[in-house]
Amino acid sequence: MSRLRVAILISGRGSNMSALVSAMKPSSAPAEIAVVISNRPDAAGLVRARNADVATAIVDHKPYGGDRAAFEEALTGELTARGVEFICLAGFMRLFTPAFVQRWHGRMLNIHPSLLPLFKGLDPQGQALAAGVKITGATVHFVTPDMDAGPIVAQAAVPVAAGDTPERLAERILTAEHRLYPLALRLVAEGRVRIVGDRCEIADGPAAETILVSPAP
Ligand code: GRF
Predict the structure, then answer these.
(1) Quick one: pLDDT at residue 206?
(2) 10-residue block means of pLDDT along the chain (217 residues)?
(3) How far is 92 from 30, CA to CA, in rounded Å?
């Protein structure tokens, strides 16, 4: 069976990228990471990728100023050259034009550190603390033109602890993200995810059995 050729797009640390790379390393995995691309030449994740023997590329957005379409053209050049079929955004801090999103419709995932549709946009951990929720989490979803809004593939629930700071909560969510993103990519690469309107249907996807009560009873 041929493996899905995936590009991971990053802008920073790249811990989710590392989790995806590790999970897809075995030749039996349904996807292979063809390239890690950063829009920032100084992204720490590039070093991590190179250390993991993954091909890397830099498509710096700065020379293009505000011309998003021109930046995307350069990005498309890299994706085409590497035979990329699917994109995983992992801490990629640029917004795409609707045309680019349309071209990758059903072929581009993102991870967001909240239980969407709650707490879209910046600082979702701070938003969760401000709202006083006792459970938050992470979501992997397909990318659509609206930010943090596409069909949801999978979610992980994380308890909020008394006295949490946004940083502590972010760390706890990140641990969950590193389990969630490989699971979601695996489901998609195995052809078990079908987009139906605004939702995803997952074939043979039993519900998790654990009920999380927070604070602990
Ligand atoms: C993660 O929290 C991810 O959900 C968000 O940006 C962060 C990226 O972290 N989109 P890393 O670069 O994967 O370590």
Answers:
(1) 80
(2) 95 98 98 98 98 98 95 98 98 96 98 98 97 98 96 98 97 98 98 97 86 94
(3) 23
Around Cβ 158, how many Cβ atoms within 10 Å?
23
**Looking at ligand 1, which residue's alpha carbon is closest to its atom 2?**
113
8-state DSSP, 62 = G
11, 12, 13, 18: CA torsion to nearest 10? 10
The structure tokens listed for 150 are 């596409």
Are 29 and 107 in contact by the 8 Å Cβ rule? The answer is: no
3-class state of residue 179 by DSSP? helix
Report d(CA 203, CA 192) in Å as an integer: 5
C-alpha of residue 92 to centroid of ligand 1, in Å = 8
pLDDT, residue 209, reads 81
Q: If you search the block for the tokens 């519900």, which residue do you land on? A: 207
Q: In Å, how far are 37, 41, 49, 56, 188 from 45, measured between CA atoms?
A: 9, 10, 6, 10, 24
Q: Is 71 exposed, middle or buried (0-12, 13-18, 19+ CB in 10 A)?
A: buried
Pocket test for ligand 1, best of 9, 40, 111 (most atoms within 8 A of CB): 111
Residue whose token pair is 């006295």: 163
pTM for this predicted structure: 0.97
Residue 170 Cα: closest atom of ligand 1:
2
